[in-house]
Amino acid sequence: MDKNTNKSTYNQLFQTIYNEKFLSNVKESEVDAYAKKLTVIKLIQMISYAQLEQLKGLRHISNSLNDDNFSSAVGLDSISASQLSRKLRDLSPELTQSLFSDIVHQFGTEIGFKSIRQELGRIYLIDSSTISLCLSRYRWAEFRKTKSGVKLHLRIQLLEQGVLPDKAIIKPAKSADKTQMDALVVEKDALNVFDRGYLDYKRFDNYSNNGTRFVSRLKSNAIVETLEEFPTNQDSLIKKDHKVILGKDGTTKMQNPLRLIETEDTEGKPVIIITNDFELSAEEISDIYRYRWQIELFFKWIKQHFCVKHFYGLSQQAVENQLMIALITYCLMMLLKKKTGYEGPLLKIQMLLHTCLYVDFTKFVRKLHHKSGQSSRGRRCIDHEKVYNITLVQVLQGEAEHLDDLTYDPIIA
């Protein structure tokens, strides 16, 4: 538990962004050289708060300073929507990228960089998600005749505490997934897991030559030459375990052999996995590939619970900064989860922050760990006649305005 438990939960949530390295980067960039009120630190706090509260626009963010608690915590009495817009637009995404990297490193330091399975090493999941934009407002991100969009290329680390975004690259959606492979698949001591959108035989050869391990899924039309067949258990879901060479002679054929594993999904359909790891068992490789769905769940989570489908600015820098601050906010919540020792869903922390952001941190921790002693009384028998008679009396007495309220429930009223 953190020693500064007498501070507010707000301070505990945002104290990580006040690290010396980031403050030094901000000073060197001179982005705050002429800032009288809205500094980079304050902007990040306000946009992060907007993510937690899912505020839809800059005016909503500006208006949130009417809350005395939030105004006092962020250190601003007021700020206009136009000032927020300019700061978000002028802020270099390299700064928010650097803060994101610092927070990820701090989280790794606190947990000792332990992976979900020590015997398997560090596992990275790599994928991208496209966020659609209005073509007329975001011309710089055009990727189809009728729409624009940005693509969040992401690498997340699989941990015992859940998943943590580890590296992010934000580009217009026109760029293919595999164009960002060299930036995301870099660590040799990790097992990198990605889908068919990242298939590139030349890169696979490079990874095999430099010892970078990967697991991917093979396309059904791939040209495969079998070199050796390994034995499989008849009772296992593993149908094939072969040593193969991929590609066509003279054009795309690989120099290094890979391992092809055929298994089944939950519906009994074949899944063909390719890897350059010959040490792990076929069952372990199959299980590791199934972990890939965690990154899909991560994309779904941030799109449902953060404001990342509606953007506060129109420029590319504003969009990149907003997405990066959303990832920073997620990491800050993960740090808070680690700090409190809470092992439940992250959504509960977000919901509790909504009502207890300014309370003493020790009180926040108690509420987070509190377990309701109320037990279910089972299905209750509803006296429909009684409900009808009560409602009838209310109508006759002219007290029926509450019946127009869609949240009114006569059974629990």
TrEMBL record:
Tell me which residues make up the Transposase IS4-like domain: 122-332
Q: Name one Pfam family in it.
A: DUF4372
Q: Which domain of life is it from?
A: Bacteria
Q: Which InterPro entries does this one have?
A: DUF4372, RNaseH-like_sf, Transpos_IS4, Transposase_11
Keywords of this entry: DNA recombination, DNA-binding, Transposition
Please indicate if the UniProt record lists Transferase as a keyword. no
Could you tell me which residue ranges the DUF4372 domain spans?
Answer: 6-66
Molecular functions (GO terms):
DNA binding; transposase activity
Q: Which SUPFAM superfamilies match?
A: Ribonuclease H-like
An example GO biological process term is: DNA transposition
Family statement: Belongs to the transposase 11 family.
* NCBIfam families reported for this sequence: transpos_IS4_1 (NF033592)
Q: How is this protein named in the record?
A: Transposase, IS4 family
The scientific name of the source species is: Desulforamulus reducens (strain ATCC BAA-1160 / DSM 100696 / MI-1) (Desulfotomaculum reducens)
